[in-house]
């Protein structure tokens, strides 16, 4: 049997990998729904022959690896390997897209310890590098040289940076309210930047339309099956860094739901392989102004509302991976909660001033959610892990709110002050 | 004999470590010169019993370690260890100050390959974390809770972030032209920020004056012997990541000369231990507007000139470690060169657009220097390594110069454009 195959999330139909990859099929042809301001239908998942993997590979060997280099365990990635090495790449080339150290850090809030996995120090300073790397490596193995993506900023700057590191061309579609530092990051990497006169949802649809016409490879989140797949690497990094003792609860900043879906996918695989006993409860944390998944979790019905929050990276009126993200929460017996913009900024400030980690607002949502859960007495002896997904320097405007400029003091003034 | 001792760079006098550390002596009492706009005299270096280390420890064991965690080889650090662990710290606490992955990346410029060690993804996104971590860990072992520093921005944001991660208080003195993102980074970490009405040299002197009065521990670069010592970790990371095959040339952005000095110190130790055969040639790269070391290298005389360059992090009219930095260049048979602000910005753009790495201007100076050297036919078959020392997002203003805002396009416009 082939190393892996594609499965439709909605109808469970199985697709041969060569067919999908040769034809560049992104969604299930039967279930495919790509409608304006709607979650996607027909998302494809990648599955492996877990029974064979279980026999051939050992948990103990995986645990010996260094986090952040997913190509070390090639049997779990939809890429071609030869003699244990990613075909066509040497170690120094791969080092260019190696993630941050990603070992677990531990901090404490009001006596309750929590763990952090820090993706703010990835190559382009966000979690999105996990998906961009896999998409770009796959593109290179397929002989593709140009990749496009719609983005609120991070996925785009990530794709732009990763593509340049690997010698590919990228084209990025962004909403007009993109934070300046993210726009500049995308441009700096030499990507073509297209700003649409509207929000992320418009950028998403416009990107698909033009990219299909121009035959560019598309990295749009959830749309390209390798985005969920790439993000599953976080599950393996947590597994490796925790020496196999995965936490009980994981708090995840959630917009499109792809980080959540990818994390679940990886944890599900680890359970399938018998390498963990229980999947941690996944807690989606959304901004009040972009809470489609929270509403869907309560009512099982989706209703589009334009998204609006200071946490621009998790603004998504129509979460593209809504259905798989929802299933991930349900199957992990997790939860979906929302936090206000005020709570998000307070969390950003608290994390910076108490733990010395500068997060962008979307990223500090995970702490705001953890804090809310903690104060609702919903965490007892359970171990909690927070995903820190984007660096604070990617959006100075949010930091300006609580860091005012200071009057310079002359030497004489300083002396007087004493 | 004691594990280590302090030696004056100028008079070679040896000082007992307990005396130096109990009395908080920063400079040699005999040679000490701290004058406005002058390099320091009496800088203390830390020396170990290399003959014993050589017998007790093996090169092969050091090469097995992971770069970025200097406390793994405790025999080379002025800290207390117990059962192989840093006394008073567990692994999870140390993980908070663990550096970036710091494996070597390889890129190519006009057919010439070069290596990069990427310090732009350290905890606060700059090389300065190497010194701040060692200073902060030492402070904690000495029972000190407050640390002060003068900084052009990076050393300050580094100390602020590292202190907060470890539960210490910091007070940072900066010049009034500090880039906004760096100011905000310092403030965000909860440090006390003092802006002086002048340049870095004034900030340095003001910090010393007030800190001594208030009895705060001082991290000022070169002044505190642990800054040069902390920066030597880069030499060990290069040694480990290159599997013992250190490069022939290393290009180093240079302001105060402490990175250069620290790097030399580490390489000198590796040679002293017999673990490398030859010290790489160290090439200091300065900005034309802040070129005191270049002038000293030519004339052996120091003359103060106010520093002015777009590369704010390497602006130092009076390089504090001038004399040791100069000796490092001479003993490594290296060089000191200068690049213009235009070359620095061009290098920033080139590195971002071709290698996908966003550097701040001071950091791209190393590439500008490498390029200049290359085009002067001064690099043949020699292997070259560049230090990338600070992340581009620490100073958006420089990136604004070559990344203009883009007009948003409505969906219709985009269609028309096709």
Features:
homodimer; 418 residues; alpha/beta; Rossmann fold; 6-stranded mixed beta sheet; 4-stranded parallel beta sheet
Question: How would you characterize the overall build of this protein?
Answer:
The structure is a homodimer of 418-residue chains. By secondary structure, chain A is of the alpha/beta class. Chain A has a domain at 104-123 and 229-400: Rossmann fold. Helix content of chain A is 39%, strand content 17%. Chain A has 17 helices and 15 strands. In chain A, helix 7 links the parallel strand 9 and strand 10 (192-196). The longest helix of chain A has 15 residues, at 200-214. The radius of gyration of chain A is 21 Å and the shape is globular. The N and C termini of chain A lie far apart (77 Å). The model of chain A has no long low-confidence stretch (mean pLDDT 94). Chains A and B meet through helix 4, strand 6, helix 6, helix 7 and strand 10 of A and helix 4, strand 6, helix 6, helix 7 and strand 10 of B.
């Amino acid at each position: 049997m082939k190393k892996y195959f594609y499965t439709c999330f909605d109808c469970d139909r199985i697709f041969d990998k060569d067919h999908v990859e040769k034809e560049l099929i992104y969604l299930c042809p039967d279930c495919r729904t790509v409608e304006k301001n709607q979650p996607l239908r027909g998302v494809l998942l990648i599955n492996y022959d877990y029974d064979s993997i279980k026999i051939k590979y050992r948990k103990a060997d995986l645990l010996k690896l260094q986090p952040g280099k997913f190509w070390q365990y090639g049997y779990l990635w939809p890429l071609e390997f030869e003699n244990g090495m990613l075909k066509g790449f040497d170690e120094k080339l791969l080092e260019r897209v190696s993630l941050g150290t990603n070992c677990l850090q531990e901090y404490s809030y009001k006596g309750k310890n929590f763990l952090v996995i820090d993706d703010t120090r990835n190559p382009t300073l966000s979690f999105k590098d996990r998906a961009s790397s896999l998409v770009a490596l796959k593109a290179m193995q397929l002989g593709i040289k140009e990749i496009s993506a719609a983005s609120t900023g991070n996925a785009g700057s990530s794709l732009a940076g990763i593509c340049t590191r690997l010698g590919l061309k990228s084209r990025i579609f962004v909403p007009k309210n993109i934070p300046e530092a993210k726009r500049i990051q995308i441009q700096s990497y030499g990507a073509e930047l297209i700003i649409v006169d509207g929000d992320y949802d418009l950028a998403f649809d416009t990107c698909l339309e033009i990219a299909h016409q121009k035959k560019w490879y598309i990295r749009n989140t959830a749309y390209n099956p390798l985005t969920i797949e790439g993000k599953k690497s976080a599950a393996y990094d947590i597994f490796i860094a925790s020496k196999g003792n995965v936490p009980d609860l994981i708090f995840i900043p959630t917009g499109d739901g792809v980080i959540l879906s990818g994390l679940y996918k990886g944890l599900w695989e680890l359970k399938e392989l018998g390498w963990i006993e229980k999947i941690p409860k996944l807690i989606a944390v959304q901004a009040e102004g972009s809470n489609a998944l929270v509403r869907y979790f309560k009512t099982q019905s989706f209703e589009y509302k334009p998204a609006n929050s200071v946490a621009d990276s998790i603004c998504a009126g129509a979460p593209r991976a809504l259905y798989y993200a929802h299933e991930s929460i349900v199957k992990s017996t997790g939860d979906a909660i929302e936090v206000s913009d005020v709570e998000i900024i307070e969390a950003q400030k608290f994390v910076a001033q108490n733990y010395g980690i500068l997060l962008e607002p979307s990223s500090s949502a995970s702490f705001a959610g953890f804090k809310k859960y903690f104060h609702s007495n919903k965490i007892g002896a359970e171990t909690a892990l927070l995903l820190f997904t984007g660096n604070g320097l990617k959006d100075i405007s949010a930091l300006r709110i609580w860091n005012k400029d200071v009057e310079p003091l002359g030497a004489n003034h300083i002396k007087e002050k004493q």
